[in-house]
Amino acid sequence: MSYTLRGRIESRLAAGLLPLIAAALLAAGLREWWPLVLALLMLAVGVALDATVFHRFLPYQPGWAAVPLGVLELAAVMGLVRLLGVQAPLRPALALFAAAWLVAQLCAHALFPRAHLTYGEDGGELGRAGHVSSAAILALVASAAGVAWVTAPPTTHLEAGVHRGPLVLDRAQRLVGEPGAIVQGGIVITASNVHVRDLEVVGGEHGIEIKDAENVVIEDVVVRGAELDGISARQSEVTIRDCAIRGLRSQKAQGIDISFALDRAPSRVEDCVVEGGYEGIVAHFAHIRLEGNRVMDTRLRGITVTEMSMGVVEENTVDRALGVGIFCSDYSHCEIAENRVVGTRPDLESDNPTRMGVAIFTYYGAMAALRDNVLVDNPSDVVTLMNAEVRHGRPWFGR
Amino acid sequence: MSEPKRCAIVGGGLAGLTGYATLRHGGLDPAEIDVFGTDPDPAAAWRERAAAISQRRMRSESDGHCAPASFPGLAIREALRRRTPGPLFQTVADRYHPSVETFLEHVAEVRDRSGWSESFRQARIERVQPVVGGFELLGHRAYRHVLLAPGHPGLAVPPELEGDPRVVHAYERHEYAGHVAVIGAGMAAATEWLNALAAGSSVVSVRRREPARRPLNLPRPLFTRRGLAAYHATEPDERVARLREWLAPSYPPGRAWDEPIERALSAGRFRVEPELNGAEQVIAATGFRRGFRHNPLLARLVEDSGLETAGDWIVLAPDSTVPSLTDETRTLALAGVPAQWAFPAADTLAGAKYAARRFARRVERCPTR
């Protein structure tokens, strides 16, 4: 069909109404925002492409073009999902996109021409129905924005300077530091839906301790000088992004410890830098995804996934770990891919032959899938012991 | 005079059927519509012409049909009938062209389902007279809303060949002599080249210009508002020029057309000439007479009502109505080839639907029934 610009956009919005309503219902049912955010992103990307690319370069659009254009839109939507950090699970997100695409095709080729006889001749314009659907979408977006506004946790801004801790966050909230804001004595989070960002945390038993909470986001935070762990999460679901952990005081302190959360949604640690510590990042009995982190100069292991955890360890860099670089143990399932493990040092004081500088070590019934890891200057590259299994390529479990 | 009846369609061909089916889809009862034509079969004239050139496939695509809504198109109907997804794959790639058989079956179905025979009146209308609140059809009653779909005003034969016993028009039944000259360069001419070659004839294509090669009669954007908006904004002189340019001969691209010609060229059985230089048989694939002046009904309407014209066309509003004779209480609209002023591809099935849908919309919105 040869769409007019208005026709493209009206058709897009009208066809997007049903998926948007479905996404809103799904969001309400799941008590999560991602379905609605995803549906809105799909609409926004579609309208943007309509206005800037499709209308200009496609004076006529044959039926088959819906497939490549759909793939292009999918790539743009998923790119935005990643860029904006929308916590949408991949398969349901793809299913929602596919369903919306299918609805759009049915609308454009069957429903709209049937309901509005001049649909084709009008270049996809829907007349009054187009206005109504556009208004309905605006109303839905406004309603969603209103709900988000009303239910959004309050935001507390910490001014520049030192604030005496420990700060206890026992209600949903956003804690945002102004440049130069420092919390002395740690932060304790005991409520779900807490977002902490742009802070430096100095000292404290743990730098940041999260207990029995969901949907906690720690972002752009520097933790230094904690007595024990830099960030400790127990029975919690947490996303930690762009953090820096250093100067831990205890010999046994760990950079980031996520434990006892196998019954929670997966936790994520992304783009953090951990310097020193007993173990850099460790997961016990948890679902985790560790991606793009840099861990260096640890005293026991760089990254550990153990005690029946399930974890993806991807695109991390482990430098100069003592003993072991990446450790998958105790019946855990690990996908270890595209990591770089460099200069793992032998632990000569331990008298333990398994700690003599192993880049990737799988142990005690663990199952690890390895793919495209770069292992440089390590005394041993991969060691497998005690009924552990290593597979090269596909993981045992889906993402 | 009695109260005007609601609707009349003058013309019992495919454009008339499309208009009728669209009105019925809009909720009009057969008793509210009279259709005037010379043959109760709306496909009669088209069938004869298609048979004359041995046409097997339509140039139109899945939505080239007479039903009021584009969906379901002929591809879906054929896929369901044949229980194969082939037509659906073809249509998404713009490769589906319904067979003549499929199209004619569809016409018969629309005719039966729409109640066509209840409204059909076998009569030739020779004059339309504007009256208060409608239009009187000479010899019949008055109607509030009239759709004129008179079809093509006759076959065109070059004047210098009229009366020449060698000449037959492509749309008249004929066989093929050993040496055939085909005049023209459009779809009918291209079909006749292949027909004559298949019959073993040698062919001379007589044409003054090279035909355009495009899938449909016109570039696709001209079938929708995307192209039409600019077209409707043109001044009359420019619009006449554009119509003359667009209505020049064309036929679709593709190997099915080219390969037989290439084989015949290399075998010396096909050549192109600018003039007719003696041939055993001359096939005039020169289409139809053009312009409202060749249609007595339209010519008289223009004369009686002083309608505005430009070149060969009656000036119409974008919705295919005659502006000076249409208001909130009555409608006079044109469909088919005379409606090219509103829709350049008016002589196609898409054009028939364009006029029919706009006519139906006016009828439905008219405050007086």
Fold and architecture overview:
- Chain A is of the alpha/beta class and 399 residues long.
- Chain A folds into 2 domains: 5-151, no CATH class; 155-392, Pectate Lyase C-like.
- Chain A has helices spanning 5-30, 34-57, 66-84, 90-115, 128-151, and strands at residues 155-158, 161-164, 167-169, 173-177, 181-184, 187-189, 194-202, 208-211, 216-224, 231-234, 238-241, 244-246, 256-261, 267-270, 273-275, 279-291, 294-296, 301-306, 310-314, 317-319, 324-329, 333-337, 340-342, 358-363, 367-371, 374-376, 380-385, 389-392.
- Chain A has a 28-stranded parallel sheet that branches.
- The longest helix of chain A is centred in the N-terminal third of the chain and has 26 residues, at 5-30.
- The relative contact order of chain A is 0.06.
- With 369 residues, chain B is of the alpha/beta class.
- Chain B folds into 2 domains: 5-154 and 289-365, FAD/NAD(P)-binding domain; 159-211 and 249-284, FAD/NAD(P)-binding domain, CATH 3.50.50.
- Chain B has 12 helices and 16 strands.
- Chain B has helices spanning 14-25, 44-52, 74-82, 86-92, 100-114, 116-119, 187-198, 225-232, 236-246, 255-266, 296-305, 349-365, and strands at residues 5-10, 33-37, 120-122, 128-131, 134-137, 142-148, 167-169, 179-183, 202-206, 212-213, 250-251, 270-273, 281-284, 309-310, 313-314, 331-334.
- In chain B, the strands form 4 sheets. In chain B, strands 1, 2, 3, 4, 5, 6 and 16 form a 7-stranded mixed sheet that branches. A 5-stranded parallel sheet of chain B has the order 7-13-8-9-12. Chain B has a two-stranded parallel sheet with strand order 10-11.
- Chain A binds chain B through residues 1-4, 7, 59-60, 62-64, 66, 109-111, 113-114, 117-125, and chain B through 22, 25, 63, 68-72, 91-94, 220-221, 223-229, 350, 353-354, 357-358, 360-361.
Distance between the termini of chain B: 17 Å
Task: Tell me what the CATH architecture of the largest domain in chain B is.
Answer: 3-Layer(bba) Sandwich
Poorly predicted runs of 5 or more residues of chain B: none
CATH topology of the largest domain in chain B: FAD/NAD(P)-binding domain
Strand content of chain B: 15-25%
Number of helical regions of chain B: 12
CATH class of the largest domain in chain A: Mainly Beta
How would a textbook summarize the main sheet of chain A?
Answer: 28 strands, parallel
CATH class of the largest domain in chain B: Alpha Beta
Sequence stretches where pLDDT stays below 50 over 5 or more residues of chain A: none
Distance between the termini of chain A: 39 Å
Helix content of chain B: 25-40%
- Tell me the quaternary state: heterodimer
